[in-house]
Amino acid sequence: MVRRAAARLDRDAELLAFHAAAIALARGARASPYAAWQALCTRLRRCGFNAVCLTPPWQCRDDIQGAPADVDHADARWGGGAMDATLARLAREAAAQGLTLLLDLEPDRVARDAAPRTAQAQWLESPADEPAGDPRQPAARHGVRYVRGRPAPAAFLQAWQSRLAGWLDAGVAGFRCTAPQRLDPSDWRALFEPLRASRPALRLLAWTAGLTPAQSAALAGAGFDGVFGSIPWWSPDAAWLDAESQRLREIAPLLAAPLAPAGGAPLAPASAAAHAALRALWVAALWGDGLLVGSELQRMMPAVARALRWRRQAAPRGRPVLLCGRDGWATLIIRPGPPGTSHVLALDPQAAHEPRVDWSAGAALLPAGVPRHLADPVEHCALYRVAAERPVRATAGALLPGPPSACDRDARVVFEHVAPSVAHGSLAAKALAHVPVEVGVDLISDGHEQLAGELQWRAVDQAGWHGVPLAPGDNDRWHARFAPRRVGLHEFRVCAWRDTWLTFCRELRLKHEADQDIALDLAEGAAHLRAALARRQARGDARRAPIEAALSMLNGGPAPADAVAALLRDGLAQAMRALAARPFMHTSASRPLWVDRAAAGHGSWYELFPRSQAVPAGAHGTFDDVIARLPALRAMGFDVLYLPPIHPIGQSQRKGRNNALQAAADDPGSPYAIGSPDGGHDAIHPQLGTRADFARLVQAAAAHGMEVALDFAIQCSPDHPWLQRHPDWFEHRADGSIRHAENPPKRYEDIVNVSFYDQASGRPRRALWRALRDVLLYWIDAGVRIFRVDNPHTKPLPFWQWLIADVHARHPDVVFLSEAFTRPRMMYRLAKLGFTQSYTYFTWRNTRHELDSYLRELSRPPVCEWFRPNFFVNTPDINPYFLQASGRAGFLIRAALATAGSGLWGMYSGFELCEAQPVPGKEEYLDSEKYQLRQRDWHAPGNVTAEIAALNRIRRANPALHSHLGYVPLQCANEQVLTFCKATPNRASVVLVAISLDPWAPQSVRVALPRWLFGLDDSADLHGEDLLDGARASWREAALDLELTPQRPYRLWRLWSRPLSS
């Protein structure tokens, strides 16, 4: 198994190198002599290509492009000799320039008068099937014939297999099959598998651009190393490219071509078509795993070379994500590069303006760092690179709360209700890199003087502060926002002062409007200007210029109206804000803000037991078995693989099946009974594999765009090594025996709990605390950055506060998920103390009122300032009553609620198979995987795998669904339907959601269309796209009438206010 996994990784590495290729398509090369071929190869290599794909130079009629009359002999313009010899010469000359030679291949299509060796009559379609008399067919169709039958005749395949073997021996490296849908997948396998067995370097590409989903899906397993997407027909306002690419990448790595290979004339460099082609070239360069460029761009080779050079240097890898722009915002293509980097291509959807980028839209997909503008490679297109910056470094003490600071009693400007603020500023609020933090404060002062204020913020390892002006709102509430770019501890504060210049300007305007004498006021204004200049003597300060100009104007004795107009200009106000004095300025105490990386706020979690992943019945699974499942998990759209404890399991008092007190000899026990003679929390269960095997799993998961999360369960089996080494870490009963874990009347016979405090002195057992911290540090060194913490509410709060602060001081990027199914105040307190995410009560919220109330609570202050919900639809411990009785529709309903309701959601394996068999009368699974191996048929009928994949795809493509924030309830009369919108603050992404809560019967509902979200009046058009089927609509009516059924219990639309170009 290890050798097979290693072989897979080696082949993946080879394919990665191959698909980094930049392939030039030389469709017209057959009309060129060898000298021109040599010159072409030289130009291609200088441009940056490393492969050339050639239309085969066989004999064919000029009026029938590509269909051979004699497949075994070269065209007369290439000397007319044997194809093997011709190809050998072409391959040698290409190789001399460092180019790999590929050939276009369409073996089932031949000229009507083809030589018998090219196509025997019995292989071809019968005359009755030919289109000779059909005027609807193009004229060229009348001159060709196709191989009949699916599967194709065996003799046809054998003949082509022999022919291709000769071409490969002549130096051809592979083929681009231009019409792969016309042959049966079994034909492709029969044709190429024997060739690949003796020539493992053979590479096969399938031109799948423009094929239907069914045609493409049929090619899975046909043996192709690469497929092509439909970028040539894509526009930047269309979301289908992402869905198509995900489908195709399940078949093979995806190559991209900016234009459909049509063999047309080269594009004129200054034409609109050329600009569109260059934009498509940059899209293809970032989107594809490899690049195919046709001869249409040969007159723009410097621009092509620039794109190829960037691609080599940037090394994009991983799966790209498309965020379609709406209402003036740019479409973003985001793709990871080398570790810690991402590349972003921004395109104006209308191709009319420079792209306007909303960086918060991509926050869930980007590393924490400042976006760097690299270039504008073509009109209406911008290229960026975001590289992870060094996390904020702070001591553990800096992460612990300090006493709240009282407002200075002598201040004339007073602050109240500063937000976000947790525990009066003694604990850190939460934020995500790139996501703006909205800060609000009440500013109160005596008199009629105008106030001004500033929000100041910094990372705690920085000396200077960044500043942004506070803007006044209603009722003395002021606001400002900033977007942190680094992970770790930040702080912010507000300062405010009585603004003398603003007060002067207000009074001057009012007096002038009342037609009062303002001569003395103008003199006072000049005095203010002179005082500001005196404060900044530096002549090179550009901010002095507006002040000097205004003062010069006043000295000239202008008319009062002209003077007032000049003194009230915005430019002068900005200069005075920067240079004028700030009397009675008061600064608040700093408040802490913890900034997390993207995975803290957006992720799709999949939980599985590694020991159940083996294919043979009854076999114990290994990490290599988990690696084998990664492609399927990624295909469903999951990015976090969560593993319950992987440590050795104790033998003493081991639990049997269904939590039986007596275990059979072959019962594996509960993985939560941690510890045996093989080791404790820093060891791996021997049957799962080794530390090297686990490292390979972490590496393989990362290659699939996933992170591994581990369970941190602080309990021990009676066989744990700590019981022998540190018996004082455990509680003992009156008879001297170890106290087992209990939650009366429940008793957990197979585990014991540690004791965090000395019972006699009440002091913390610091050695135990450090040992538990070191367990986390051990797995962090093994590549784990996410921990799901088991039952944290049963451990001391001071311990968690210390532990999380200590770990974050060393590794600010670590994520902690709290499994605190407990009372709300305890759940929230754990979040305030530092837990990144938390399980929630979502699992038990089923009615419209329950769900709506809970979503409101979670998405609004103060809860949203420090609590991030992770909506798990089930767990190994919880088989919800709703799912036990709802059938397949219930699983669809809960999946839709979780994926649309929160930026974080999770499921335990088996949910996709609609598993719900309970222990009678309990929320527990019968034959629970906690106590036995459970092997499954992942393709069992009735599964919801495709629906989960679609929901995860929709989540990624719509920033409004990246978070639990932005929940906007919509009124509807049907209590069996939940309707709401999710919206980003700037309304760049708005999704309307309607979910039936009834798994048994159809439900009709009228949903009010939320024009007010966009500032539209009731008569304005509102536009939408159905995110399930891609249909677009424009609405003038006030409401949308829907029918939801158990087969399709949810609908989702992307909404926008401005019409699109397409």
TrEMBL record:
UniProt-recorded Gene Ontology molecular function terms: hexosyltransferase activity; hydrolase activity, hydrolyzing O-glycosyl compounds
Keywords linked to the UniProt accession: Carbohydrate metabolism, Glycosyltransferase, Transferase
Record EC number: 2.4.99.16
Domain Glycosyl hydrolase family 13 catalytic, first and last residues per copy: 607-955
Binding-site positions, alpha-maltose 1-phosphate: 655, 715, 750, 791, 930-931
Function: Maltosyltransferase that uses maltose 1-phosphate (M1P) as the sugar donor to elongate linear or branched alpha-(1->4)-glucans. Is involved in a branched alpha-glucan biosynthetic pathway from trehalose, together with TreS, Mak and GlgB.
CDD domains: AmyAc_GlgE_like (cd11344)
Chain spans, region Disordered: 116-140, 652-684
Record protein name field: Alpha-1,4-glucan:maltose-1-phosphate maltosyltransferase
Entries under Gene3D superfamilies matching the protein: Glycosidases (3.20.20.80), Golgi alpha-mannosidase II (2.60.40.1180), Immunoglobulins (2.60.40.10), Phosphotransferase system, lactose/cellobiose-type IIA subunit (1.20.58.80)
Keyword Transferase: yes
Family label: Belongs to the glycosyl hydrolase 13 family. GlgE subfamily.
Catalytic reaction list: alpha-maltose 1-phosphate + [(1->4)-alpha-D-glucosyl](n) = [(1->4)-alpha-D-glucosyl](n+2) + phosphate
Alphabetical list of InterPro entries matching this protein: GH, GH13_cat_dom, GlgE, GLGE_C, GlgE_dom_N/S, Glyco_hydro_b, Ig-like_fold
Catalytic residues (UniProt): 790 (nucleophile), 819 (proton donor)
Residues the UniProt record annotates as site (Transition state stabilizer): 877
UniProt record, GO biological process: alpha-glucan biosynthetic process
